[in-house]
Specification:
By secondary structure, the protein is mainly alpha-helical. Helices cover 80% and strands 0% of the residues. The chain contains six helices and no strands. Helix 1 packs antiparallel against helix 3, helix 1 packs parallel to helix 4 and helix 4 packs antiparallel against helix 5. The protein is elongated, with a radius of gyration of 16 Å.
Length: 152
């Protein structure tokens, strides 16, 4: 394990996570009409902490391999989209725009999973929970948009 490399990727994840601290769900989100399958609020910090650790570890593994440039570019794109979603959804309260960001996020997470798998199957598998969570987030984003059209 290359600790410096891991903590560098974890720092990028920390920047994305910081948007969650700056743009908290709050009363606006609590007041939305949500589907019954919405995860409880306590799940989000636990899930995101776990996912960020897995993402950083997977990226560190791949970064040590020759030919990892494109895979790491996909990783960089997904963390950028990840960072953007929270301010658009919770800050601007624009669910349709957040969904557009989330589609970009999903595409780049999927590309990261595949490209990591090709280089290091363990790293690819480490990214799968993130893809599943982003898929759930996308379904939730769509449901919230439909249930709360005033925040399109």
């Amino acid at each position: 394990m290359d600790a410096w490399l891991f903590f560098t990727f974890l720092a990028a994840c920390g920047a994305a996570a910081a948007t969650g601290a700056m743009f908290k769900p709050g009363a606006w989100y609590d007041g939305l009409d949500k589907p019954s399958w919405t995860p409880p609020g306590v799940a989000f910090p636990i899930v995101w902490t776990t996912l960020y650790l897995l993402m950083a570890f997977a990226a560190m593994r791949v970064a040590l391999l020759p030919g990892s440039g494109q895979a790491l570019a996909f990783w960089a794109a997904q963390i950028a989209f990840n960072t953007l979603w929270t301010p658009v959804f919770f800050g601007l309260r624009r669910m349709r725009a957040a969904l557009v960001v989330l589609v970009g996020l999903w595409v780049f997470v999927a590309l990261t999973c595949v490209s990591f798998w090709i280089l290091d199957p363990v790293a690819g598998v480490l990214m799968v929970p993130y893809l599943l969570w982003v898929s759930l987030a996308g379904a939730l984003n769509v449901s919230l948009w439909r249930r709360n059209p005033e925040f399109a």
